[in-house]
Design brief:
By secondary structure, the chain is mostly helical. It contains ten helices and no strands. The chain has one domain. About 75% of the residues lie in helices and about 0% in strands. Helix 2 runs antiparallel to helix 3 and helix 7 runs antiparallel to helix 8.
């Protein structure tokens, strides 16, 4: 395999992404909203205390698995930990999903719109080198944003919750596993699905809209946690990561078997 050719494809795709405002703006807006704006809501928790107390709708009662974990906190601290540690966990996974799908949607469909796909197809690379370059050009930024975002969220969560917690309480073991193990797998899931979709879609918007189905999977995890069906714990997060990596491997296998530049050439 020609590593230089793969690196050239990655550099070219990333250059196009940063020059395209329609693609780069969502990549900037998503981390700001998820990692900065949402943790800031913790400052309002004291005013929303009744929501988690006996005078209101007690969401924590629907999650008996959290009772032992939160036993060492007072009522208000439980509210903060519930919001910033458990409710934000599935939302954090949206970050690598959004980044991966946004870039991957542009990988082939965007090339078709810009009329640059033909030149790319005739470069002296194998089908596997071309596919791998496209995969890495979306996966690497998604993992970078996820890991950088984890560090940013660690700072923001501790700052926002300091008036209530009075100490550093984040990250937890579950969040470390989520960032190091699960986030790259989720990025791989988004990339694998989107490259397959994007290679068949005619336009970037068509590919991006179809790729929204990948984000719905993460939204489903949030719904399951809010409804009390499951609670993110270290072991559950580790199992989710294993499941996502298995799906990634399957997508990579099918993608490599089915990817042929001759098929792309007929779609231009």
């Amino acid at each position: 395999m020609n590593g230089n050719a793969v690196q050239a494809i990655v550099r070219k795709d990333l250059k196009v992404v940063f020059q395209n405002k329609g693609v780069s703006i969502p990549l900037i807006a998503a981390p700001v909203i998820i990692l900065v704006a949402l943790p800031g809501v913790a400052a309002l928790v004291p005013m929303l205390g009744d929501m988690f107390g006996t005078g209101g709708v007690n969401m924590l009662q629907s999650m008996p698995g959290l009772q032992a974990t939160l036993a060492g906190y007072d009522e208000l601290q439980r509210s903060v930990v519930f919001l910033l540690v458990y409710m934000m966990a599935p939302l954090y996974l949206l970050l690598p999903t959004i980044v991966a799908t946004t870039i991957a949607a542009d990988s082939f469909a965007g090339e078709k719109e810009r009329k640059t796909l033909e030149a790319l197809l005739y470069t002296p690379t194998t089908d596997w080198e071309l596919l791998l370059g496209k995969l890495l050009s979306a996966w690497l930024p998604a993992v970078g944003v996820a890991w950088g975002g984890f560090l940013l969220y660690t700072v923001m969560a501790n700052l926002a919750a300091w008036p209530v917690m009075g100490r550093l309480f984040f990250p937890t073991t579950m969040w470390v596993i989520l960032a190091v193990w699960v986030a790259p797998a989720v990025a791989g899931l988004g990339v694998g699905a989107m490259v397959l979709i994007s290679s068949r879609a005619r336009t970037y918007q068509e590919a991006y809209q179809l790729g929204g189905m990948v984000a719905m999977l993460i939204v489903g995890l949030l719904i399951l946690q809010v409804s009390g069906v499951m609670v993110f714990s270290a072991w559950l997060v580790a199992l989710l990561g294993l499941l996502f990596w298995a799906i990634d491997a399957a997508l990579l296998w099918f993608g490599r078997r089915g990817f042929r530049r001759s098929k792309l050439a007929t779609q231009m």
